[in-house]
């Protein structure tokens, strides 16, 4: 919150000064209305809307990076807030008939605000299309933020199950093969132990980027839990899935990840298994993948002790 205020301090200060100046002008030129003539419905409607606009402005600044689009949206909302604030002030202060500028203060910023907001939303829409393109291998069909893991951020186990079910239905309908890859880092707990949990988190984020780079357009990557990832491969038979699994495993081995402590390389390897879906549901498929992974881990223990 403090960093958000610091980053946008000039804009927020400008809005505060504008609102205070408007209020001051009204106080200097007019008189406070007696309580008996206050229109509570108007006060609640206009004042409430102004408060909501301030809330939107706060949420906007808190959730978006600073820049051109954020500025357009901010100034759009700021103009609408100013108009409504002036409208609310008008409910408490009566101005002499000769005064005409109050109409400008109330109505002037409103169309400007809508124009700026429209431009901002248009650019936001274009920005979102570009982000969607980058998110393709993480989201595929729909977005459900509650099912996204905050660290990586990939779909979690629940999201994966939903996607499994959708992919299975689609594969059956199109009579196309569907395969999966499961990847689990070997000895990841050692990274946490030796370098700290923060370093482990960073490594998982780098690994996510690496895996995403190795996927095809229509594949989907999810983080099942901890250091275990699953890739859904539509239109893919088992042999092709095995080839892709080999490539992904090779990519992990080749990753020259450097620790942030002394910059030394952290050697990595992963157990990777690939399976083709049979006539089964999402839970059974996930269970088969987990069993195949347990076997792969077991043979690793036999091999290296
Ligand atoms: N840094 C970090 N560690 C995590 C996260 N989630 C799970 N872990 C850790 O990941 C480790 C997973 O343990 P294991 O399943 O035994 O994995 P492993 O050490 O790679 O062992 P094998 O899979 O048998 O090779 C545990 O130490 C968890 O604490 C996370 O979000 N961040």
TrEMBL record:
<protein>
    <recommendedName>
        <fullName>diguanylate cyclase</fullName>
        <ecNumber>2.7.7.65</ecNumber>
    </recommendedName>
</protein>
<keyword id="KW-1133">Transmembrane helix</keyword>
<dbReference type="GO" id="GO:0052621">
    <property type="term" value="F:diguanylate cyclase activity"/>
</dbReference>
<dbReference type="GO" id="GO:0043709">
    <property type="term" value="P:cell adhesion involved in single-species biofilm formation"/>
</dbReference>
<dbReference type="Pfam" id="PF00990">
    <property type="entry name" value="GGDEF"/>
</dbReference>
<dbReference type="InterPro" id="IPR000160">
    <property type="entry name" value="GGDEF_dom"/>
</dbReference>
<dbReference type="GO" id="GO:0005886">
    <property type="term" value="C:plasma membrane"/>
</dbReference>
<keyword id="KW-0812">Transmembrane</keyword>
<dbReference type="InterPro" id="IPR043128">
    <property type="entry name" value="Rev_trsase/Diguanyl_cyclase"/>
</dbReference>
<feature type="transmembrane region" description="Helical">
    <location>
        <begin position="108"/>
        <end position="125"/>
    </location>
</feature>
<feature type="transmembrane region" description="Helical">
    <location>
        <begin position="68"/>
        <end position="88"/>
    </location>
</feature>
<dbReference type="InterPro" id="IPR029787">
    <property type="entry name" value="Nucleotide_cyclase"/>
</dbReference>
<feature type="transmembrane region" description="Helical">
    <location>
        <begin position="40"/>
        <end position="61"/>
    </location>
</feature>
<feature type="domain" description="GGDEF">
    <location>
        <begin position="176"/>
        <end position="305"/>
    </location>
</feature>
<dbReference type="InterPro" id="IPR050469">
    <property type="entry name" value="Diguanylate_Cyclase"/>
</dbReference>
<keyword id="KW-0472">Membrane</keyword>
<dbReference type="GO" id="GO:1902201">
    <property type="term" value="P:negative regulation of bacterial-type flagellum-dependent cell motility"/>
</dbReference>
